[in-house]
Write a structure and sequence with these properties.
single chain, mainly alpha, two-stranded antiparallel sheet, 5 helices
Length: 185
């Protein structure tokens, strides 16, 4: 029996919270607040541009940095809550007749996801360190200077949390493959 209902929410009697689950929700909330900040910035820019013929400086730079940060901040919780876009029609059919095999394939899928997220962390970490150390920013000097290291930090933390979530799912699937009854093909 799954610990999730059809919409991906925890089923009745399922564990509702963990420290890691709380962390993914906190990252998700930070991403949501960043979306709100983007909406306020865009509206302020439109009002300034149209009502006062004076656009808000730095909005485009802020939006460009924020979009990627939001994706990574919300990715782990989206994965954890099983709310990502997926098409597993064939694997569901396989799971009906060969549950051990399907669990094993899902485990491999999750390991690949974890590995890809670890690669993101490994690639972005030196960039984060350089942008922090050298004080890189986006915008126009003296007008608006947006430090870019917080956005890279969001990418690193989000990718690391997503890697952990993929690894937890892989472990769960491999355990399911070991205990599931039925053909082991």
């Amino acid at each position: 029996m799954s610990d999730r209902n059809e919409q991906g929410a925890p089923a009745d009697g399922a564990p509702r919270s963990s420290y890691f689950g709380t962390l993914t929700r906190v990252l998700n909330v930070i991403g949501t607040l960043l979306i709100l900040a983007m909406a306020v910035a865009v509206n302020a820019d439109v009002i300034g541009r149209n009502a006062f013929n004076h656009p808000l400086p730095g909005v485009l730079e802020f939006l460009g940095l924020s979009i990627v940060a939001i994706v990574f901040l919300q990715m782990a919780n989206t994965l954890r809550e099983d709310r990502h876009v997926s098409n597993d029609l064939i694997m569901r059919a396989v799971a009906t007749s060969r549950p051990k095999f399907a669990a094993f394939i899902y485990g491999i899928f999750n390991l690949v996801g974890a590995a890809l997220m670890v690669l993101v962390v490994i690639y972005v970490w030196p960039i984060l360190a350089e942008t922090y150390r050298n004080g890189y920013f986006r915008g126009t000097a003296g007008v608006v200077e947006i430090p870019i290291w917080p956005f890279y930090t969001a990418i690193v933390f989000g990718a690391a949390a997503t890697a952990v979530q993929f690894a937890l799912f892989a472990l769960r699937e491999f355990q399911r493959a070991m205990r599931t009854t039925g053909p082991a093909r």
